[in-house]
Structures are given as C-alpha cells and as structure tokens.
Amino acid sequence: MATNEIATILLLGSFVVLIFMRVPIGFALGLSSIITTWYLDLPLMVVAQGIVRGIDVFVLLAVPFFIIAGEIMGAGGISARLVALANALVGRFRGGLAMVNVLASMFFGGISGSSAADTSSIGSLLIPIMKKKGYDGDFATSVTMAGSVQGILIPPSHNMIIFALVAGSVSIGRLFLAGVVPGILLGVALMIFCYIMSVIRKYPVGEKVDFRTAMKSLWDSSLGLATVLIVVVGVISGIFTATESAALAAVWAFIVTFFVYREIPLSRMNEILGNSLKILAIILIMIGTSSAFGWLTAYLRVPGLVAQSILGVTDNPILIMLILNGIMLFLGMIMDMAAIILVATPVLLPIAIKIGIDPIHFGIIMMLNLGIGLITPPVGNTLFIGSAIAGISIEQLTKCMLPFFGVMLAVLALVTFCPSIVMFLPNLLMPM
Question: How far apart are CA 348 and CA 366, in angstroms?
Fold first, then answer.
C-alpha cells in the first residue's frame, strides 16, 4: 500500500477513533493532524503554521461580535418581547401558542443566530406555558427545537461566516440574503404542521389580542429587531463590512439591553462576556486545527478521491445532491456543526460546483442539513438542551420529533432542488 494511502487512512481513522473516545473535536483534529504529519516525516511546524493560518483572517473578527450581541440580547429580556409580538400576530388561532413558539424563534433566531440560544431562551419561557395550557410536554419541546433551526438560516449567523471563510470567494452579504427565504419557508411549514396537529389533538384556541396591545408589542420589540436590520442592511448596502456591522450590532445590543430595557444589571456583563469567550474559544480552536487538518487532506488529495468516488457512482446531478445531503445529514448526527463546516466544505463543495450548484446555494443547503443535525441523536446539542429544559428523555423527544423531521426534510428537498428559493434575494438585491 502506498505511503499516501496509509497516511489518508491514518488521518481519517485516527480522527474517527478520537471522536468515539469523546475527545473534543478541536483537539481530535489537531491530534490526528500531528500523528499523520509525523508519519509522513513532515516537520511538525506544518501543523502550527496551519493553525495560525486558519485563525489569522480578518473576517473572523465578526464572529465574537455576533456571539456577544446574541448573548446580550438573549439575557436581556428580548425573548419575552418577541414572544409577545408573535402572540399578537398568530396567537388567536387554534394551536396559537405552538405557532407563537415558531414565529418567536424566527424573530429571535435572526438576532442570536444560534439554535442552542434560541431553544434556551424561547424554550425556558414558552414550554412551561404551553404545558400549563394543555399541550403535551414532548410536543411543546419538539416545536421549540424544530423552530430553533431557523436561527441557523436567518441572518446574522456566525456559522455562515465560517462557511464563507472556508469556501473562499463567497460574499457574506449574498449568503445572508440567501438564508432569509428558506428560513421563513421553514417557519411557515412548521406553523402549518403545528396547526394541523393542534386540530387533531384538540389543543386550545389562543386569545385574540387587541390592536393597541399588538402595537405596543411591536414597539417594545422593535429595538431588538433593529439588530438584524443593522447587520443585513449595512452589509448588503456596502455601508459596513460584515465585521463592522457585527461590532455595531454588539454595541447596539449593549445599549438596548442595559440602558433601554434595563431588566438585568450591568454586572451581568461579566457573565455574558465569560459565556461568549467560552463559545469563541471552542470555535477558534476548531478553526485553527481544522485548517491544519484541511491542509493535510489537500496534500493527500482526499477531496479529489471523494469526488472521484461519488462521480464514479453516478453523474446524475439529482442523485449526487441526494448523496451529498445524506452525507451532511449523517455527519450532523455525530459531529459539531462548526467542525463539519470546516472539515466537509473543502471536500463536498467542489463536487457541488462541478454539477452546477452555486456556492451560495450549497452553503444554505449545508446550513439546513446541519441545523437538522443539531436536533438529531446521538450528538445533537439542541436536542440535549431541550431535554434538560423540559425534563423529558431523549428517547421520548426523538420519537415525537419524527413528524417534524418529515416537515424539515420536505423543506430541505425544496431548498435543494428549487435553487430560485435560495438565490432570489441575493440576485435581486446584490447581483454579481
């Protein structure tokens, strides 16, 4: 067996073994890179250089600012205001609280960009209320988790920035715009499903909200929602770069939370910064070590081998996209989202481009696939958060989630095979 073949098996095999040994993914990427570099008799400085090269990118400065903005808004009372706004809009229908949950997640996801943060904030508020009103606990939790995936698609999303970094010359503004329609489509599909289930299970009809209360809810939540406008409008208009808009969003979130809403003391800022630093440290470690890992996969020509294998099975674009979706869904079940973006994008994106898929389109397909992975056992982070909040077992939640998976996979199929859904806004507002 040739040296490169053994090195490829060693690189991928050691990574898989370390993952199953529950070694954190960032360290697993680094250790497997070191082992393979040593086997190839390359200087270990290659790994160090790869790590530095991975994090020495200006656009990455946007990531900590987006994380801080999301943490501040999540802690500062915005979730309750968004729930009130969603209730004014859709709460009057049968199963209104379930639809409120999905719509609130759509709003909050646009601010936090995080499925986990969405589930923690909206779930802690709405799951107990839904159970008190007669909804089944597992259904209320499943609605919350499924709705939280919108946060991955609707801008701003730090995961989209990571994808843009790995994919190369991909416009962050166009990527942000591309996620809007699929995110709203997912929310509408989930609300329709919630209504149908509420009719079948005879869940209660919500109370109608008068016009004055609805306007008050809109006004109360408008300052929080302005965070999204600052980022999206600033980036697509060219007024700000992604990094500048992220910094401005963090400052805006700080002012609104501590000097307008004033529901938490300024002393909480230390805790918020600490939480943000933990998240950022994990992301940067993964970005750095995945850069070294990615250099080795390129050196060993792994992307070419994978492409050759898939294209050797079929040259039908539809079948190839089904295979790529299957790979991403499987990876989403066993690995962290950021790690998959960093490791899988250099391998899968060239295949998609070869069959005519736009990189922006592929990025949104990947976000939705991996968002579904966040609520799928055995490693779905959001699934574990939902279980902890509701006090319901993973097994029971997984069983209840099955029809939700069906809805989300149907949306995934539309997003995959109807590119206009994804590319309409980018082509309209930021034509190339």
Answer: 10
